[in-house]
Amino acid sequence: MIRGNDPILLTPGPLTISLETKQAMLRDWGSWDATFNRITASMCADLVDIVHGAATHVTVPLQGSGTFSVEAALANLVPRDGKVLVPQNGAYCLRILKILKYLGRAHTALDIAEDKHPTAAMIEEALKADPKITHVAQVHCETGAGILNPLNEIAEVCARHGKGLIVDAMSSFGAIDIDVSKYPMDAVIAASGKCIEGPPGMGFVIARKAVLEKCQGNSHSLAMDLYDQWTYMQKTTQWRFTPPTHVVAAFRSALDQFKAEGGQPVRGARYAKNVQTLIDGMGALGFRTFLSREVQAPIIVTFHAPGDPAYNFKDFYEKVKARGYILYPGKLTTVETFRVGCIGAIDHNEMRNVVSAVGETLKEMGVTKIAPKLLAAA
Ligand SMILES: *Cc1c(COP(=O)(O)O)cnc(C)c1O
Questions:
Q1: Is 49 in the same domain as 124?
Q2: Ligand 1 lined by 197 (C-beta under 6 Å)
Q3: For 10-51, how does the pLDDT look when each residue is reduced to its tens digit (9 = 90+)?
């Protein structure tokens, strides 16, 4: 699907993108040029369609990595006297809390273990206990451990209680179905360099138009002012400030390939097969996943590190890299783990090769005890 001599990135993101997407960057675009601005407009329309939001929502693209768009969504959609509930089960939920602190928005965390997800009942209880809460900020796939949070049930609770829902769908958008026409959401946030398989450099907020229209003056920051970006774009068809032109052009190509592949259902199925192939192969080598299968998202898998004293992540990483694959360190504080991303322009054959590379690496390192320390001791 790709090729060249670059190692495969199992690190979402950035992730491995197709040759066609890379080639779409070999051209310079003027930001004032009508051709470029038509690309922007068609991109925005396609993104809204992916979440079934054409009737109610608009896309506001924003320069920068995904976090810039998360910050902008919170700064614009939560009024200065609002209060945000953050169900917290991992690193990206903690990042939302940190952003809210920077923004000076009142917030409260609902702490949950990293291998568990919030339930509708838990959210309902928290909303009832604190009537000051105006919004819920929910991470859909918590990429920290790779857990899938039950977005639709949470959306129903928020709607029932009249609370706004802001969703960090960074690592799920395009791979897992999100339907704002059935499950009310004020904003769905994602970025160019995840499941649509574009290069990194641009994020976007798919916002409910009726809500966004009332957001003038909420933002503390000019660069993060989504309302201003949106109204300027409507007036002029152009981006406010220099757009990441090559990223936008490549993302347009990535969207065309996404549609040609069959859209979200087919992309999601390819990733699910990647995850299953990886878990089966690694399981045969003796590895254990951190998450139970029921809560595992089809995006990224966290494995316990082998308990063998001959194992260390740095050497393991280098030796697997020499075989063509870039792994991801673990993001958990309590147990030693590593992660393998299953998204990008890769298929299950690639995942089979990853397992072979890991197996050969373990042999080379003399690692024989694959069971994790904690479980080995038990
Ligand atoms: C990738 C990701 C982000 C954004 O990270 P950046 O490094 O800013 O692109 C935010 N939330 C989740 C859940 C992610 O997976």
A1: yes
A2: no
A3: 998 899 999 999 999 999 999 989 999 999 999 999 999 999
Average pLDDT, the chain: 96
Report how far Cα 356 is from the mean position of its chain's Cα atoms: 27
Query: 366 is written with which tokens?
Result: 């003399």
How far, in Å, from the CA of 269 to the mean position of ligand 1? 22
Residues 148 and 182 in one domain: yes
Q: Using a 6 Å cutoff on CB, does residue 144 contact ligand 1? A: no
Residue whose CA is closest, atom 2 of ligand 1?
Answer: 170
Nearest to 72 by CA among 178, 230, 210: 230
Pocket test for ligand 1, best of 95, 170, 202 (most atoms within 8 A of CB): 170
Verify whether ligand 1 is closer than 6 Å to residue 138 (CB atom): no
Asked if residue 66 lies in contact with residue 190, where contact means CB atoms within 8 angstroms, the answer is yes
pLDDT digits (tens, 9 = 90+) for 162-214: 999 999 999 999 999 999 999 999 999 999 999 999 999 999 999 999 999 99
Q: Quick: pLDDT tens for 45-87.
A: 999 999 999 999 999 999 999 999 999 999 999 999 999 999 9
Residue 98 token pair: 């940190």
CATH of the domain at 166: 3.40.640.10
- Residue pair 40/62 in contact (Cβ under 8 Å)? The answer is no
Contact 257 CB / ligand 1 (< 6 Å) = no
Q: Among 260, 284, 314, identify where a domain stops.
A: 260
96 and 43, same domain (yes or no)? yes
Q: Are residues 225 and 286 in the same domain?
A: no
Cα–Cα distances in angstroms (integers) from residue 263 to residues 29, 196, 254, in the given order: 27, 9, 11
For ligand 1, atom 6, the nearest C-alpha belongs to 66
Q: Which of 260, 370, 378 is nearest to 306 (CA)?
A: 370
Cα 97 to ligand 1 centroid, rounded to whole Å: 14
The reported pTM is 0.96
Domains identified in the chain, total number: 2
Atom number, ligand 1, closest to the C-alpha of residue 67:
8
Contact 331, 339 (CB under 8 A): yes
Say what the pLDDT of residue 377 is. Answer: 47
How many CA atoms within 13 Å lie on the side-chain side of 332? 22
